[in-house]
Write a structure and sequence with these properties.
Radius of gyration: 24 Å
Order of helices and strands: HHEEEEHEEHHEEEEEEEHEEHHHHHHHHH
Strand order of the largest sheet: 1-2-3-4-5-6-9
Structural class: alpha/beta
Mean pLDDT: 88
CATH class of the largest domain: Alpha Beta
Bound molecules: zinc ion
Distance between the termini: 21 Å
CATH superfamily of the largest domain: Metallo-beta-lactamase domain
Number of domains: 2
Length: about 475
Amino acid sequence: MEKISRRTFVAAAASLMALSQSFIPWREKEAQAFEYTPPANMPYSKAREEMNQLILRADRPQVVKVCENVYSAVGFAFATMILVVTPDGLVIIDTTESMSASKRVMDEFRKISNKPVKNIIYTHFHPDHWYGTKSFFTPGINVIAHNDFVKEAKLWGSMGQSALIRAAAMYGLFLFDDSMRVPWVTADPSVVAAQLKWEMPNPEDLVWPTQTFKDQYSFQIGGITFNLHHAPGETADQIIVEIPEYKVVCPADNYYACFPNLYTIRGTTARPVLEWAACQDKVIKMEPEFLVPGHGSPLTGKGRIKETLGNYRDAILHVHNLALEAVQAFKPIDEVAPQASLPPHLSNLPYLKQYYGYIPFCVRNIYHSYVGWFDGNPINLSPLSRKELGADVLKLAGSVEKVLEYAEMAQKEGRHQAVLELCEMILTNDPKNRTARLMKIVSLLALGKATDNSPAANYYTTFATLENNKL
Ligand SMILES: [Zn+2]
């Protein structure tokens, strides 16, 4: 193999990502030779090219007038913040993850109405829907959420640091260069991409619910009715808000304009997928003229909403059924998951692109929600670790160099998962092997570049930069 210097490698890696050399903070050590030339060209996939076009058009914070008296602040933060004006005061639905963003939004809302805020509704416990409250909260405002809000928030907190690391990797928060981060893009009805604005609030800055309910809760302000329905889906404590006089439904995170994150790689307990699908029918029955989701732009028109939510439900059920059929047919999930996809009449819809939820990940988790971690194959009861299997592979190959040579060939063929598996086998046995680590970094970057799924792209790229710190 051709020997190349560290400097050459840096240049190649930088051009590989079509980004500046500052893309990766290579440590300033003496130049060191090693036997490896990264492939020169690893292009974006077609879907990712389309996504990149969406991202270019995306960053436009705006307060969207949904209808008379209802407004949604889109693009200021990761989630939306919704304003409902009644004759006697305001109701705010969700407050974003960021106090600076919610303050900006409230300044905009104040141009629309200076009436007092009466109630705040939290659609669920995810931080992007309530960490921003403190910026405009005054004592006396009623804060309404589901009974399980606090329990779910604490359950998430009990995962400790790993929850934060995984979430930060998935949203690209560790990536110091904005151009490395892939925002969550939705394609319909208008483009929306918003970066998570993570400000790590102090515990005393969190405003917890003052009132909770179990199945349904209704109240009126100024003659306007707010029906709050428990509707498990993205989370178990999810609630949707129906405002019949305005013909508005806020489906929270049970609808957003891309394939739903039925499983999230930041790690959660199994999400109630069937109830998530059922929620779409529940909303359709309410016959809203306006649908105002927790992420992205509002959707208008009874017929359009019905069709969209119907397709959304069908897509969720299709993916659920793929997993259940695999369980029933005793099929290995490792073979089923990578092939899993929607039928063309659904997969071509702009609001079912896998920019956020990714079907192979979802199928895997639904499968395991039925049978647990064991797939039924006795080989998998006590599998070898990568280190143990790696020791055998290295012995079989005769030398580490042979394995590296093979990995290099696999990398040139674009088989990056194989490269990762082989490099991991080497690194678990020889953590100081620089070539294996560099190859691993390049394949992580290539996978991050090729996927059209934003969480996966950020996760691969984040771990490529973390690996770099170990060089
Ligand atoms: Zn959300």
